[in-house]
Amino acid sequence: MAGWRLHSRNSDQAKAVGRAKSAGAKRRYIYLPSAAHGYSRLFYTEPLSNEKVATATAFLARAKIWFAAHGITHINRAVTDNGACYRSSDFGRIVGNKFR
Hints:
Elements: H1 4-7, H2 12-22, E1 34-36, E2 43-45, H3 53-69, H4 84-87, H5 89-95
Antiparallel strand pairs: 1-2
Helix pairs in contact: 3-5
């Protein structure tokens, strides 16, 4: 449900969001990490509920399997935003320590 920036402050949608906040609803974020193959521009993205180490490493493991199913079996480079989950040793093992 979009808020007031899309519908205006007095719209029914914005009022519904305001009522939900007043009732104690918490804001939830969806994280959308992506992995891209630079040559073919093939992307793998999935919605995740957090940015924890276990979640990031599981995402990369699934991305590697997905890319392998499409004939891409080697990671040349991993570029991240340097978040803590991407600097972990577990993530490094999935990528390959030579890229850390």
